Model the fold of this input.
Amino acid sequence: MSKLNAEERKARDNERFSQRVDERRVKGEDVVAYALANKKAFKFLTKSEKHSLKERQAALLEEANLKAKEQLKLKEQQELERIQAEFTEQ
Done:
């Protein structure tokens, strides 16, 4: 078996991802979820699927930001409670 050069590997990989996306689309599976999990599948999505992907990415990013803010708020509240407890002990 001969080794493939970079261009041949890229073409082979692109063909594989194209087939995987098409198979999922035929089966009725969520190809957008697949593209979220595997960034290389993005270029094989249809225009509407790409739009849906961008919407989901934005929603996931917003959700992550909210979660981070909640965690920060919780840490600040815990720190405040700890300081208040130390102050009242004195």
Summary: The helical segments are 6-27, 31-37, 47-89. The chain has a mean pLDDT of 91. The chain has three helices and no strands. The first helix runs from residue 6 to 27.
